[in-house]
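step=encode ok
step=design start
structure_in=
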């Protein structure tokens, strides 16, 4: 990861975690072919059973924003979006320091 890369953090709540996890896997496969995609770390909360977080790394902020528009039309992403009850945080971050 270089300083120019963008990290996209999405934290959400799902009602049916097994269904959301399966839908997320399909979404991950689809988005892995988007321009500027680097990686996606999918994690689940240890304290809140229905809380998931996705940390997606992009080459640029433009690539991240373009992907954000594209997922709204991507049929492979629709089941994951439908599985999300609430979005707690959806934000882009630039790496300032790393050790």
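sequence_out=
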């Amino acid at each position: 990861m270089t300083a120019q890369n963008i990290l996209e953090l999405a934290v959400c709540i799902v009602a049916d975690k097994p269904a959301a996890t399966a839908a997320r896997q399909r979404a991950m496969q689809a988005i892995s072919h988007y321009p500027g995609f680097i990686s996606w770390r999918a994690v689940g909360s240890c304290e809140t059973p229905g809380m998931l977080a996705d940390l997606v790394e992009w080459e640029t902020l433009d690539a991240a924003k373009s992907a954000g528009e594209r997922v709204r039309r991507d049929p492979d992403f629709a089941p994951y979006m439908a599985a999300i009850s609430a979005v707690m945080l959806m934000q882009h971050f630039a790496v300032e320091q790393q050790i």
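step=design ok
step=annotate ok -> The chain has one domain: 6-94.
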